[in-house]
Amino acid sequence: MMRALISVSDKTGIVEFAKELVSLGIEIISTGGTYSKLKEAEVPAIEISELTGFPECLDGRVKTLHPIVHAGLLAMRSNESHMKQLKDLNIETIDMVIVNLYPFKATILKDGVTRAEAVENIDIGGPTMLRSAAKNYQDVAVVVDPTDYSIVLKELKEENVVSLDTKFYLMQKVFMHTSSYDTMIADYLRRQRNDHELPETLTMTFEKVQDMRYGENPHQKAAFYREIGKKQGSITDAVQLNGKELSFNNINDTNGALELLKEFTEPTVVACKHGNPCGVGSDTDIEKAWDKAFAADKVSIYGGIVVANREITLAMAEKMKSVFLEVVVAPSYETEALEIFKTKKNIRILELKGIEIPQEESAYDLKKVNGGLIVQTIDSKLLIEEEVKVVTDRTPSDKEMEDLLFAWKVVKFVKSNGIALAKDKQSIGIGPGQVSRIWSTKQSIDHAEELIGQDATKGAVLASDAFFPFDDCVEEAHKAGITAIIQPGGSIRDEDSIKKCNEYGIAMVFTGMRHFKH
Predict the structure, then answer these.
(1) One GO molecular function term (predicted)?
(2) What are phi and psi of 57, to 5 degrees?
(3) From CA 295, how far away is CA 278, in angstroms rounded?
(4) CATH architecture for the domain at 3-193
(5) CA dist list (Å): 516 to 230, 329, 389
(6) Whole-number Cα distances in Å, 205 to 176, 180, 256, 373
(7) 279 by DSSP, 3-state: which?
């Protein structure tokens, strides 16, 4: 007679599955709450203590950690010595294990959970049984996921055995499951200790949200995963109200736009395209902020991403409806505004409560390289470590300083080499990703003059994500009528740039901190 050991925290479908196993002549062994549930449903089962001859103890902490259980799981049926030892010890084999683990994830996600509660929900016996059974997969079918009950039953009914291929598949799922489980525990403990150090060994676990149609390009496979935990303010927390499913590029670009948006507290709109901001505007209300963001680049916004940190109004939606947009994200929408967006079936409308909540400082930024992974903590520092340092003869006016700080926030999220021009809390020209800083500077000026007007840069300010290696960028800024510059400083040629600024009456401030984005 085949025997199955059942001990599950998630009892979805377990009674029905156990009844089917019994109807196939399989004997059931069970533990604790699972045993009680099966008995209540009149499913015949043997309690684990009856099998081991040892009572459950320590509030159920010890029940399956017993040689009779693990010898029955680990004995290789093809090994004569193993089978002889079982016979001599009067131990019977166990042919199937149906186990899932204490709800550690559900526990740590509860509001107000204590460390003691979390630790008590670390399963010990369950992972041990799973690993024992999975190691001996040739002889033991081990089921950790209720969705696999139907696969096992189908094969048992048709072939009277679970095939080796299926048992190998189930083995893989076990080790994926226990690996994820242990990683959740390790990550929880790291956060409990407020440990921001990069660990000697790095393990991470993510849960699939959805498979995607394709990746960056149609020939690449892709899926969307979320971190486990309360990640408020991230795109994984958004509720989609309209449109097609999000693509790989939609998610990547939207995430970048959201991270820039979090730098602002006043009503702000960010438009993003291919991972770079193309229009940013701040004002006293969200509609005016949209006007600025749209006017900054009416060309590149086509097919782009728009995020806003205030409720989108009917008046704003009326203006937006004529623009082809891929994704719109906001904390809320006026009912009439949402109805306007829903007339455009393809636009993805996301509602994200807590849109202003930043990432935890302990979060990691990951980049995959061939053969490895480069890991860093996120760029969560204040944009300026201390007070900015005025390094020129002329000090920026209050108006210029306001625009300088605005541009400095924008350039933090422009791919390096990055330059951002701003005026009246509106981005007017952005130069991203050039291999030379002077090219980025010229590009941002050309962009502003072409899309906004010949005099757009007169009285504007310039932000650079890293220092000027030469004074050529100052020269170009002067030609464009730019009156103030913000940059990190730190070049061996800083004095050249300062001298050139003084020559032209340009105010320049150093931040002491760069913000490369690669």
Answers:
(1) phosphoribosylaminoimidazolecarboxamide formyltransferase activity
(2) -145, 175
(3) 10
(4) 3-Layer(aba) Sandwich (3.40)
(5) 28, 26, 20
(6) 10, 5, 22, 15
(7) strand
For residue 102, how many C-alpha atoms fall within 13 Å in the half-sphere facing its CB?
21
Q: Which of 173, 274, 298, 399 is catalytic?
A: 274
Which residue reads 């679970």 in tokens?
162
Candidates 11, 19, 135, 288; catalytic one: 135
Supply the mean pLDDT for the chain.
Answer: 90
97-117 mean pLDDT: 88
Does residue 347 surpass a pLDDT of 80? yes
What is the distance between the alpha carbons of residues 417 and 261, in angstroms, rounded to a whole number? 21
Query: Is it the case that residue 196 has pLDDT exceeding 80?
Result: no
CATH superfamily name and code, 386-510: AICAR transformylase, duplication domain (3.40.140.20)
pLDDT of 61 reads 76
d(CA 288, CA 298): 15
What is the per-residue pLDDT across 282-334, written as a single tens digit (0 to 9) for each?
Answer: 999 999 999 999 999 999 999 999 999 999 999 999 999 999 999 999 999 99
Helices (H), 24-148: 32-40, 48-52, 67-74, 80-89, 104-108, 115-120, 125-135
Could you tell me which residues are beta bridge partners of residue 427?
Answer: 422
The tokens of 202 are what?
Answer: 């790095």
List the domain boundaries for the chain.
3-193, 234-351, 386-510
Strand stretches in 297-440, DSSP E: 304-308, 325-330, 348-351, 364-369, 372-377, 389-390, 419-422, 427-431
Instruction: Name which CATH class applies to 234-351.
Output: alpha beta
d(CA 199, CA 191): 12
Q: How far is CA 25 from CA 3, 157, 186, 489, in A?
A: 9, 11, 41, 78
Active site residue 423: no
Structure tokens, 482 = 């730019």
- DSSP for 180-216, written as a single string: HHHHHHHHHHHHHTT--SPPSS----EEEEEE-S-SS
Strands 3-7 and 96-99: parallel
Note if 70 is an active site residue.
no
What is the percent of the chain where pLDDT is above 70?
A: 99
Closest CA to 121 of 107, 111, 142: 107
Domains 3-193 and 234-351 share a fold: no
| Structure token digits, residue 237 | 């927390």
